[in-house]
Amino acid sequence: MNDPIAELVALLSRLPGIGERTAARLTYHILGSEPEYAQAFGHALIELHGRVRRCERCRNYAVEALCGICSDPRRDAGLLCVVARPPDVAALERGHGYRGQYYVLHALLSPLDGIGPEALQLGALVERVQRGAPREVIIATPLSVEGEATALYIAQELRALGVRCSRIASGLPHGGELEFSDQVTLARALEGRRDL
Ligand SMILES: [Zn+2]
């Protein structure tokens, strides 16, 4: 009844950027490789949801209670960068220019899609700012309509706590997605940030 080949093709086709033909090519490639490779592949997939969780402090993906950045004492606790998604942290880290800490929202405001402020779960961010009292919060959400709306909302909430908020400069390509920006552009966007 259930055909493992067809099943894997169907699963791979659901990945972004993978059409059915590519999915079939990948499936036959895996089938033609050593069985150990397919087993390691399956094991890694199971481990993803089994072992990866959200860092207790920044909410980025982590294997331990605290991620590598939050548990690194050399990071500047006075600088807090708020991003939309985990790949944004990875993009900023590739540049090696930023030495502060992070907070990952996992969401952006989108009133048209019915995504309001409650989706941002700002309670944990507010608590962290109150407790850690950073000298600056850099809001690095994408430079899209949703990203800008989110940045303004967060700045409004945090300014009430007396913390300085800044916004990354424009100039990022592809709808302002950090993930797809090169290191130089990202470094410039960080350096050119302005107060909100
Ligand atoms: Zn963390």
Write structural notes for this entry:
The chain has a 5-stranded mixed sheet with strand order 4-3-5-6-7. It contains 7 helices and 7 strands; from the N terminus they run H-H-H-E-E-E-H-E-H-E-H-E-H-E. The chain starts with a helix and ends with a strand. The protein is an alpha/beta fold and 196 residues long. The site of zinc ion has 9 residues, from loops.
SS summary, helix count: 7
Apparent shape:
elongated
Uncertain segments are none
Q: Please report which band the strand proportion falls in: under 5%, 5-15%, 15-25%, 25-35%, 35-45% or over 45%.
A: 5-15%
The hetero molecules present are: zinc ion
Number of strands: 7
The residue-averaged pLDDT reads 91
Whole-number radius of gyration?
Answer: 20 Å
Helix and strand content put the structural class at alpha/beta
State the major sheet.
Answer: 5 strands, mixed
Secondary-structure element order, as H and E? HHHEEEHEHEHEHE
> Gap between N and C termini, in Å?
60 Å
Give me a quick take on this structure:
The protein has 196 residues and is α/β, with parallel strands linked by helices. It has helices at 4-13, 20-32, 35-51, 86-94, 123-132, 145-159, 183-191, and strands at 53-54, 61-62, 76-83, 100-104, 136-139, 165-167, 194-195. Strand 5 (136-139), helix 6 and strand 6 form a beta-alpha-beta unit.
